[in-house]
Amino acid sequence: MTQGTPDSTGSTTQISLRYFCFVLLAGAGLFALAIAFLAGPLNTYYADQAALNVQQKRLDKLNELIEQQNELIANANVPSVLERVAITNLNYQPASEIPDAKRPPLPRAWPNLENALKKLEASDSQPPKPLEKWAAIFAKRPQTLLILTILGSALLLTSVTFFYRQS
Fold this sequence. Notes:
Largest sheet: none
Number of strands: 0
Helix content: over 70%
Order of helices and strands: HHHHH
Distance between the termini: 16 Å
Mean pLDDT: 77
């Protein structure tokens, strides 16, 4: 038998077991190091994305309002346009349609409806993703990040020292 070839299946099994242990421990160590080093930047990234999304929604609302105002300004001389806008947005009924020609008062529930709309707009935000939650948790705990760094380095060092050798 030559030295470079395995002499039985036991030797091949030992090599594959050593390779499996190396991959498992090195992967766990690298994963722990990645979490430790990326938790802070990921937390900052997700906070920045949330702020950008809020600002983008505000810009979209402002652009929509600007378009509506420009349309109203362009048609300001046409009374039917203003009346239609009042009918659709303010629940206005023209005096010609009301038999006793009285203006209908605003409903009592109007302030409640405005509050409900504000709550709906606030609840439109999406729930945080799991990675986002974990990044926020780890970013708030520097001791945990230090422990993860030490344990990840130890796992990586152990896997390289004991399972990477060719013997």
